[in-house]
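Example record for the data management plan.
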Amino acid sequence: MLYQPLSRMQFLVSCVVLAVVSVYFTAVDITPQQKKVAKTKYEYVISQLDKRHLPHIIAIVPLVESEYNCKARSRVGAAGCWQLMPELAKDYKLKKADRYNLYKSTPAAINYLCDLYNEFGSWPLAFAAYNCGDGRVTKAIHKYHSHNYVKLHLPFETVAYVKQIYKNEWFFQHRH
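Corresponding structural encoding:
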């Protein structure tokens, strides 16, 4: 296991993130039912991350991917909250339709992200690979002789994607 259990400080920061998400979901201009559903989905993902002592930033991925919309579909075939491609779902023992089910797709998506983390050694690289594929990240690492995410020249969309994850995490941590 390459990822470390959360330190006390990381745990406290994660608690703050959860509190801020609660504030966010009460402040956003959506119906009470939509707020309840989105908050419930986020809290479910957090509970799964806590069981495995994983960082809460992973719960931002479906927010960026689909705004926690389990019915979301992309033009290239990704589907569900986590926007899993059919081949990836199959690799992680999901049926194609299971991608639309938060409770079935979340463990698969978390396992995939952990596999990417174990392969690349950092969350920014894992998030980049989640977006543009592990092959593309591996090529960039070899081309630029670096495992430092900042030094790699990745596609614009991927750079924007990783920024969006960290920007949302920052927002949730610093919103008062």
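Summary line stored alongside the record: Residues 22-28 have pLDDT under 50 and may be disordered.
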